[in-house]
Amino acid sequence: MEKQIINAKGSGCCRFISGLVTMLAVSLVYLLSPAFGQTSAGDYNPVIERGISAGMDADRLESLVARAQERRVSPERLEGMMEPALSLAERDLPYNPLLQKMTEGMAKSVAPGTIRQVLEQMEQGITRSVAIVDPWMAREEVRIVMERGGEPRQRERGASAREFRNVFLETTSHALQQNVAEGTIREFLDQVVPGRAAERGAVPSIAAGLRALPEMLATQDNPEMSIRLLIRALNAGFTAGEMQQLPDAFRYAGLHSQLPFENIAGGLDWQMGQNMPADIILENLFQGNVGGGPPGFSVPGIDGNGDDNADRGRGRRPPTPSVP
């Protein structure tokens, strides 16, 4: 009996050791596999070389590779995710927004397939934008605007037409991805050129206006009104940062005044007609003071100026967004 117990114990011990060895072997294979094992910087050289050949910035690529190594993304998977960005770079189209989105996705441990899907949508948007932006920039009057440059710091460093093209391709792509119709975007760009905004050479303000277009409350149902208001603001000298604030200003004006969009638009027209500075107009809208006057003031054609309801949320204006 004692002998049988000893044999049973020995048999159990052997099975335990055998199972342990098998488990260690499987773990070793798992850790050494390309998808999960550590890879050296040299393993990513083919990806970097392809990116540089396509015209990508070397420092940006190295930063992306460092993030991939940190997240244990293999060179093969990284190149697969980068394919939409590489395709754009090879066609001399803006690719940086895609690399930025890829970096953010890896930082949040988003699945590579999901990242690739988002980047493909961005690539499609920029590709569609070419048919809108390039014919517009080829017009003589637009070329003159671009030659004048944008803000002083851009003129000082000699910002090129290529840089401006990339900006408009990116903003147009953003509008398309927000379901703004191509015809609406073309109409906005067509109306910009004859206006005073073009005379000022305020290229960043025009680009900011185009980026604000999808965010305006009326764009889906009444795009003509959104275009008219944005063009009016550009002609009044709104800066890029001020253009970016207009959509939120309209939302706050509607919230505090309880007036329909058409009335708020009329109030904006009135204030700009009185040559009020852009920062004052925005402050009035954020506080629900649609008419821009003192308490009790009423703009003709507008039922009240919002003062009866303006106490709600006053002083809670959101921070000024940064200009890209």
Descriptive notes:
By secondary structure, the chain is mainly α. Helices cover 67% and strands 0% of the residues. It folds into three domains: 49-120; 139-237, no CATH class; 241-324, no CATH class. It is elongated.
Secondary-structure map with pairings?
Elements: H1 2-32, H2 45-53, H3 58-70, H4 75-90, H5 96-107, H6 112-137, H7 140-148, H8 152-156, H9 161-177, H10 182-192, H11 196-200, H12 203-212, H13 223-235, H14 240-257, H15 261-273, H16 278-286
Helix pairs in contact: 2-4, 3-5, 4-5, 4-6, 5-6, 6-9, 9-12, 10-13, 12-14, 13-15, 14-16
At a glance:
With 324 residues, this protein is mostly helical. It has helices at 2-32, 45-53, 58-70, 75-90, 96-107, 112-137, 140-148, 152-156, 161-177, 182-192, 196-200, 203-212, 223-235, 240-257, 261-273, 278-286.
Give the total of domains.
3
Rg over alpha carbons? 29 Å
Sheet with the most strands, sense and barrel status: none
Share of helical residues: 55-70%
Number of helices: 16
Arithmetic mean of pLDDT: 80
SSE succession: HHHHHHHHHHHHHHHH
Q: Quick one: overall form?
A: elongated
Please state the structural category.
mainly alpha
Query: What portion of residues belong to β-strands?
Result: under 5%
Task: Tell me the number of strands.
Answer: 0
The residue ranges in which pLDDT falls below 50 over 5 or more consecutive positions are 25-37, 154-158, 304-324
Q: For the terminal residues, how far apart are their CA atoms?
A: 84 Å
Based on the model shown, name its key terms:
324 residues, single chain, mainly alpha
